[in-house]
Amino acid sequence: MAQHFLLTAAARTLSLKAVFRMGEDKAYQTFCAIRWADTDGTPVCPRCGCVESYSISTRRRFKCVGCHHQFSVTSGTIFASRKLSFTDLLAAIAIFVNGAKGISALQMSRDLDVQYKTAFVLSHKLREAMAIEAPGILTGTVEVDGAYFGGYVKPANHKANRLDRRLIANQSGKRQSVIIMRERKGRSLTYVAKREADGIAAVNAFVADGSVINADEASHWDVLHGRYAAQRINHSECYSDGIACTNMAESFFSRLRRAEIGTHHSIAGPYLAAYAREMAWREDYRRVSNGGQFGMLVAGATASGVSRQWKGYWQRAS
Ligand SMILES: [Zn+2]
Questions:
Q1: Mean pLDDT highest for which of 82-86, 259-263, 314-318?
Q2: Residue 71 Cα, ligand 1 centroid: separation in angstroms?
Q3: Which domains are delineated in the chain?
Q4: Is residue 135 helix, strand or coil?
Q5: How far is the CA of 62 from the centre of ligand 1 (A)?
Q6: pLDDT tens track for 274-283
């Protein structure tokens, strides 16, 4: 029997060992090569796009011949104003891609011996890079489903004090629905809303005409039959009838649920969309080697511009 891809050597093209063996100079060169892949590593001014620059090699900076702007390899990327060494940055990305269900900021801070805050912000910047390359419009056969996350209400100690948590009055109001739209053999898009039925708007916005929708028996999906060819699967009877199924959507929820419970223990409401996007990325690229994922993430992270949300996050917060 053929060996599972994830067990083959082809799936393991990157290791922490390799990153640390590089040393700081090689890590810097690797970073430059990925950042300026289009010009074979030749620096490009982030202000005017000029490809001629003077190198101020002692400070690892460049000065643009055209506009005299000084920049570094991280200028204009989510790693702008970084304080970590390039080795640590690359190691952090390696640790991040290797975590199938995500990596908690605490674990990363221990692995790299950096502050929790540093690991927290870096992880969110990497999620932002994953979000940048999310697909625009989905086509073909698209599975659609929703699931609820967050807003957990702990049952009271004594049975007599316990409330019926199925009633809206006894819920926290923080529960949100993640809606997944997933192309078969393609890409995935996530959407966070108050209710699963709000996913209708997302499907209408992001799934092209002529696509075939696969959804479960939940009645709010019925309206999709008006615009799309839709195949439904009744999960109380089976999970696949040979034509309709939403098993790819369920795989995504399985990963996000395990990340929520097993890795992060809870996901705060405002960040749910970022974690959902992260898990969709991990699902879509699960058959890409870890070195390949690493390259995609570094390239995405360096191409995605300065992080508005996360640059100087703790400085602003305190
Ligand atoms: Zn310039």
A1: 259-263
A2: 9
A3: 12-36+73-133 (no CATH), 141-285 (3.30.420.10)
A4: coil
A5: 10
A6: 999 999 999 9
